Amino acid sequence: MKVEILFPEICNLCGDLMNIRYLRQSCPQLDIVETDLKSRPRFLDEDIALVYLGSTTEKGLSLIVEALTPVKEELLSKLDEGQLMLVTGNALDALGQYAQDDQGWRLDGLGLLPTHAEYHMMQRHNSFYLGKFGDMDIVGFKSLFGHTYGFPSGDALFTTVKGVGRNETTTEEGWQKKNLLVTYLTGPLLVLNPPFAAYLLEKMGAPCVQPAFEEAAMEAYRIRVAEFAEEGRDFRY
Q1: pTM
Q2: Percent of the chain at pLDDT above 70?
Q3: Cα–Cα distance, 91 to 81 (Å, whole number)
Q4: For a tag site, which of 104, 116, 187, 199 has the least CB within 10 Å?
Q5: Which residues contact 152 (CB under 8 A, 6 or more apart)?
Q6: 63, exposed or middle or buried, with CB in 10 Å at 0-12, 13-18, 19+?
Q7: Which of 96, 98, 19, 94 is nearest to 52 (CA)?
Q8: What phi and psi, each to the nearest 5 degrees, are found at residue 123?
């Protein structure tokens, strides 16, 4: 069973590559393959259980778009067929219609998502996040220059309890369509949320779904959920 990391040479900020390392620690049978910017994504031609794309720089976003534009239609087809893909941090902005900042920079995205991002380069947003995935608590962090607009209501991946959703006007965070899961959360997400890591392993059809270092990981997870939920605790930092 294979997991593919797209463009790890640039999509490696905020510790996000630990998401896949944690999955491998949880299930040593997983075969991790890495695809660089100059190579054809393996999931287009092979059976890949999970495709992962993590946080990057603004220049990295343009490199993602450049690398995936020639295979955009194949990518859309694979997602429509139900390919499981997890996108974290600002990488989702490369999948949207466009991103722009207040300094004149603009990125035309792949147009896979009906969204656009607005950046304010002198007003970086840093915060912690507490939300829900069904009945499951979700914790994480956000560190970004702006927010995303244009997602249709009702397709959220997480529901915000404390913190900021897709933008400051909604409690909906991230997006889920079929097996495409996108979220601005970093941390890394799966290390901070072992129940969600177990959910993802099960969704992949992995032969083992027990999260690595389960006792310690769950203790840290429960402490963090309790701390983030404290009354009067500001979510910004």
Answers
A1: 0.96
A2: 100
A3: 22
A4: 104
A5: 114
A6: middle
A7: 19
A8: -135, 55
Q: What is the mean pLDDT of the chain?
A: 96
Query: What are the tens digits of pLDDT across the range 90-146?
Result: 999 999 999 999 989 999 999 999 999 999 988 888 999 999 999 999 999 999 888
**Residue listed under structure tokens 């893909």:** 85
The encoded tokens of residue 125 equal 């947003």
Token pair recorded at residue 200: 């993802």
User: Is the separation of the CB atoms in 48 and 42 below 8 Å?
Assistant: yes
Answer for the pair 50, 31: CB distance below 8 angstroms, yes or no.
no
**184 secondary structure, DSSP code:** S
Q: Which residue has the tokens 């139900």?
A: 82
**Counts of helices then strands in the chain (DSSP H, E):** 6, 14
Closest by alpha carbon to 185, among 132, 226, 229? 132
Nearest Cα neighbor of 89 from 199, 11, 169, 25 is 11
Share in percent of the chain as helix, strand, coil (round to 5): 30, 30, 40
For residue 209, give the nearest of 53, 22, 82 by alpha carbon: 22
Compute the distance between CA of residue 110 and CA of residue 107 in angstroms, rounded to an integer.
Answer: 10
